[in-house]
Amino acid sequence: MIARKIGVAIIGCGYVFDKYMATSGAYAQMDIRWLWDIDADRLSAATRCYDLPAASGLDAVLADPAVELVLNLTAIAAHEEVTRACLMAGKHVYCEKPLTPELAASEALFDLAAERGVMLMAAPCNMFSDSVQTLWRALASGAIGRPLLTYAEFDDNPIYLMRPEGWRSRSGAPWPYLHEYEAGCTWEHVGYHLAWMCAVFGPVRSVTAFSRVTVPHKTDQPLHPADTPDFSVAVLDFESGVVGRITCSIAAPLDHRMRVVGDEGEMTVTSYNQYRAPVWLERFTTLTLNARKALSVRRHALLAGIFGVGGKPLGLLQFPWSVAVMQPIAKRRPSLPKRIIAAIKRRELGLQDKMLGPVLMARAIAAGAPAPLPPAFILHLNELTLAIQSAGTTAASYVPRHRFEPLQPLPGAINQPADWRATHAPGLLDRLLGPRLDAMHQH
Fold it and tell me: How does pLDDT run across 281-322, given as a tens digit for each residue?
């Protein structure tokens, strides 16, 4: 994938660290040289789990000339300090989201990176997934005509009812539920949908948002602050003319759908989280638009499929770096029952390839190419996230100061079809029943 290995250090071995390690075994060019965490017990557990060396401290990591790229996976409050130290030492940095809680601090870090001649990027990287790249290419080809609307859901279950106090990562790190409540689901989650929306549809002209606490009884532990929003909804006015809507909550049952509606059809992806989640394309016809009015069609997936409601899945694009089998670096091979459980979880719950962003960044470092995501794009996401989080209940509009030049899909897809619409043309059933349904549903 790249001509040479890139020396990598990972700072922060908490819960999200294991998410990155989940696909690390697929990328041999990432030479993970050091782990470090301010918590000695957490560091020890991580090094034992993955058989990787522990650094004696951040200064030791930064003094190693073989380390070119640092993954900053620390808590949000530490992002700015750790990232600045790494940039000052001449290291490229990939930081977990959000880059910082203050726009001015993020701007200063990018200024420092430019001054030092190094690359700075921040999560999320799901716009590079096979699913989003397929969606993006199909939209660009006119598969649903002109895109009009895009909707995204990040209802992440009423986690407070799911005993998160006992959740542990692969290496034993606890899920930081108090921190998650205090930071809020918008800070933690909205970037996943903002990233692919802005990548595909370009910069946002203005955002109108609403946020507030809906579940004050999430925990009996004290929260600081206690009034961080656990619900937000934002309407995005894109410069391209598309209108978007994002909803985040930890009150409603899980729903991670991504939808784009055009003047000729609709595309749907069931999850941002599964990097090879199916992408469904429905070309609107008289049959599909009328059939979905019927109660039986709405209630029964089989009937919906027969009448074409929801469309058919597209063949996903694949790239040279697409991860077919995601396996972590491990000190010992897990037992067969554990491997079976892991395979079922990957299929049913999805698995983010969080390491893909750092890997594409490493490719750019090795090639002397620009960062896969430009600073203006990340600052735009950072600014929108802040605006949505802090919107409150007044529903005022906010105009971002930062904008970016529209991005393009990644080159190098090895299986892009010549015509995305060819397999989604109206069929015999549509030609036979369409006119009759149209007559039945005249108002």
Answer: 999 988 888 888 889 998 999 989 888 899 999 999 988 776
Taking the chain (443 residues) in runs of 10, the rounded mean pLDDT of each run is 81 97 89 97 97 97 98 96 98 96 97 98 95 95 96 96 95 95 94 97 98 95 94 98 98 96 96 91 90 89 89 89 54 68 71 91 95 97 96 92 95 80 69 65 59
Contacts of 212 (CB under 8 A, 6+ apart): 229, 231, 392, 393
Helix (H) / strand (E) containing 348: helix 336-349
User: Would you tell me the crossing angle of helices 375-389 and 185-201 to the nearest 10 degrees?
Assistant: 130
Q: Which residues pair with 397 in a beta bridge?
A: 208
Cα–Cα distance list, 313 to 133, 308, 352, 424 (Å): 14, 11, 20, 10
Structure tokens that stand for 65 in this block: 């000339």
Spatial neighbors of 56 by CB under 8 A, at least 6 apart, are: none
Beta strands in 96-138 (DSSP E): 120-122
pTM for the model = 0.92
Q: Bridge partners of 208? A: 235, 397
Q: Which amino acid is at 125?
A: C
CA separation for the pair 39, 14 (Å, rounded)? 9
Instruction: Judge whether 228 and 408 are in contact, CB under 8 Å.
Output: no
Residue 392 backbone class (left: φ over 0; alpha: ψ -120 to 50; beta: rest): left
Return d(Cα 292, Cα 86) in angstroms, integer: 55
Q: What are the structure tokens assigned to 86, written together?
A: 């790494």
Burial of 67-77, coded b for 16+ CB within 10 Å and e otherwise, reads: bbbbbbbbebe
Amino acid occupying residue 81: E
Q: Give the distance, in angstroms, between the CA of residue 221 and the centroid of all CA atoms in the same chain.
A: 30
Give CA torsion, residues 394, 400, 405, 407, to 10 deg: -40
Distance CA 415, CA 319 (A): 8
Determine the Cα–Cα distance for residues 367 and 387; give it in Å rounded to an integer. Answer: 36
Question: How far is 143 from 149, CA to CA, in rounded Å?
Answer: 14
H-helix or E-strand containing 359?
helix 356-367
Q: What is the Cα Rg of the chain in Å?
A: 23
List the one residue out of 306, 317, 340, 354 whose CA is nearest residue 96. 354
Q: How many CB atoms lie within 10 A of CB 51?
A: 10
Return all residues near 117 (Cβ < 8 A) that are at least 6 apart: 90
pLDDT tens digits for 231-277?
Answer: 999 999 999 999 999 999 999 999 999 999 999 999 999 998 889 89
| Residue with tokens 């809507």, as numbered in its chain | 245
